[in-house]
C-alpha cells in the first residue's frame, strides 16, 4: 500500500475517512436546518414587529385625539379664556 500522499489507504483508514465524511455531511445538514429555522423565526419576528408598529401608531393616534378632546373640554370649561400654561384646543 502507498502512503496517504500517494492516494492509497488501508481499509481501516478508508472506513475512518468515510465515517468522518458522513459526519461532516450530517453536521452540514444540521447546520443548514438550523440556519433555515433561524431565518424562518426571524422572518416571523419581523412580521410581528410590523404588526405591532401598526397597532402602536393607532394607539398614538387615539391618545392624540383623546388629548385634543380633553384640551377642548378644558378650554370650554374655562369659557374659552385658556389659562396659564394652557393653549386653546386646535
Question: How would you characterize this protein structure?
Answer:
- This protein is mainly α and about 90 residues long.
- The protein has one domain.
- The chain has one helix at about 10-75.
- The model has no long low-confidence stretch (mean pLDDT about 85).
SSE string: H
Contiguous low-pLDDT stretches (5 residues minimum) are none
What's the story with the biggest beta sheet? none
Q: How many alpha or pi helices?
A: 1
The class by helix and strand makeup works out as mainly alpha
Whole-number mean pLDDT: 87
| Total tally of structural domains | 1
CA-based shape: rod-shaped
Radius of gyration: 35 Å
Task: Provide a concise account of the structure shown.
This protein is mainly alpha-helical and 90 residues long. 74% of the residues lie in helices and 0% in strands.
How are the secondary structure elements laid out?
Elements: H1 11-77
Which structural traits does this protein have?
90 residues; mainly alpha
